[in-house]
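so im writing up the methods section and need the PAS domain S-box protein record in one place, dumping it here so i stop losing it
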Amino acid sequence: MPFGRGERSETSPRPPARRKFAATVRPTGIERTFALDEVIVSKTDTAGVITYANDIFLEIAGLAEHEAIGQPHSIIRHPDMPRAVFKLLWDTIARGDEIFAYVLNMAATGDHYWVFAHITPSFAADGGIVGYHSNRRVPDRSAIAAVTPLYARLKSIEDAAADRASGLAASTAALHATLRDLRIGYDEFVFSLAR
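--- predicted struct ---
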């Protein structure tokens, strides 16, 4: 079946591996946005390697199709985004559950963009997970304002640690403690942020 505008073949050859933009690009402090009726869509395999990206994803990330397909989804990770949130995200979807999250990403130019992400596992006929599907919409600005201090605190904990592993462990513990103190799960927390 032919692919329509914005659809990418999941069997396209993979380009050579690339590191995250954060390793080679400095954040500009300029925010990119997309329209309320647009949805950023991508799919990955179980290792997080991009197998599909729609035109909105490519446009906002500043990538051509051949630059996105075959790359780790973490290529767009913004350096200010705490790793503890990604650990929670990966732990959740690896169990076969869906997750919603506010995520700060970075384009190839160093510009940043916020998304409200909904990530779900994709299942094979036998019930095994074969990959992940993510739809990202324009986030509620009040939710971004509410989540930013938490993300900054988690990132600060990660950066203050002696090594990456202990930083991630401390930040993850702080995230779980925050949720325990609020007496809500992560999904409830995420949905409580929008006003």
